[in-house]
Amino acid sequence: MIDKMVHPAYLRLVEGVLTPLLRPLAYFSRIDRGKGVDGLDIWSITEELKGSNEEYLIRHYEHIIRNGIAHGGISFLQREIRYRDQRGNQEAFGTSFVVRLFDDLLDTCNGVAVAMKVFFIVSLDQGYRSPGELMIEVIQEYTWAPWWAIEGCVEAEIAGRSQLTVYARPDTRDSRKVFWSTVQSGILSESLSPGYDRYFLSLRSRKALPGWAAFDGQKLRELRKKGAESLSEYRGILEGDVIFYVPRLALPTMFAALDTWATSVRIAVPTAIQKMKDGLGIPRMFCRDGTLHRNSWGAVVRGGVVVEGLDGHELVKVIRNNRGRIVRMGKRHARKAGGFCIATLLPIGYAQIAVFRRDYRHRRVSGFGLGKDLVCTIRLQRLRHINSPDIIGSTIETNGKWRIAWNRAWLDDVGQQVLEHAISR
């Protein structure tokens, strides 16, 4: 997996994402120092940012790994990977470290990209022209509906006029919903990516013929600068006053209204249930990892559960009071992920669930180690012949067939008082 997936992705991430995102920082840093700005490759960028306030952005970049991947200097050892650059420098890293490095670099790039999006959004009135690729996720978020999704956009030039083509995916036979979302998306596209003469929405749906709508960029721009608020003021922004969307099988108005009502209920019910749980003080927790198999007469469950928004004494209390719920969440997650097997029908004979106070990727949870975000492991032991070691250096708390091993790194982080609370009964 590392050779076929992680290595190529790491190289593309460095060359195509990290380098262009960090180049403006290095550029202005050199300007401030009165130095030249030529030759800002990834090596020059990292050297420029070392010792600055932005040094944390290059913390997860390893130059020798990048060179080893780019120039074929990779040797796979028993439990390590050795990277070698063109000058003969070499260094070995563990496989888990390489995967973790890629994940952390991806998070860094996502963070910088989000910061750039925020900058372009708040600086629209300063004359900056935001790249369409950066704004597409903002447009997706603001216009999303159960029947509407934006998939992408691309710049074009039609008959000497600049155009932003936005690709939308309607999923309804109700034309009125599509008309509303089309106008909303066109207005928002111009406000987030101004400067185009024309905004063209391509409508592709499995429930309708290929459709389209074209907006006059100049009229949209004038209305936005004038501060238009009423939808009636936007009359005339559509070329030909036409939104072409023809369902293959149009629904009568009554059925369209029933479909809207059913969709509203489907969206509102989970939100109402969550608000009710919050009102009753039921903590928010979710399962990130889970496995399930049969052993003797019972099911063996292992997994990882995240408890959000709590720490210290409150987290200890929640874990103690919800240990059964946490174990059942692990089994339920494993059943959904692995499909049906005989173990899903059996009672739980043995379970060991790791509890985290912070969310991580699935592959990191399964091999997390003893970091301070691992709070404890909860064990339910009904099958006596299964033996499993506890967390090294942990504080053990037992209650019948239940066993909680509190992680020492977490206890050291939250303080001695929590340690005393955890072992007191």
Structure characterization notes:
The longest helix has 32 residues, at 2-33. The protein is 44% helix and 23% strand. It has 425 residues and is α+β, with helices and mostly antiparallel strands. It has helices at residues 2-33, 42-49, 63-70, 95-122, 132-143, 175-192, 217-226, 253-279, 312-321, 323-338, 362-366, 408-414, 416-423; strands at 74-76, 80-84, 90-94, 150-158, 161-168, 198-203, 211-216, 238-244, 285-295, 298-307, 348-356, 374-381, 395-399, 402-406. The protein is globular, with a radius of gyration of 28 Å.
Report a brief summary of the structure:
With 425 residues, the chain is of the alpha+beta class. It is built from 13 helices and 14 strands.
Strand order of the largest sheet: 9-10-11-12-14-13
Our Rg estimate from Cα atoms comes to 28 Å
**Which stretches are low in confidence, meaning pLDDT under 50 for 5 or more residues running?**
none
Return the average pLDDT rounded to an integer: 86
Structural class by sheet pairing and helices: alpha+beta
Total strands: 14
The number of helical elements comes to 13
The major beta sheet can be summarized as: 6 strands, mixed
Q: Which range does the strand content fall in?
A: 15-25%
Termini distance?
Answer: 47 Å
List keywords for this structure.
425 residues; alpha+beta; six-stranded mixed beta sheet; five-stranded mixed beta sheet; 14 strands
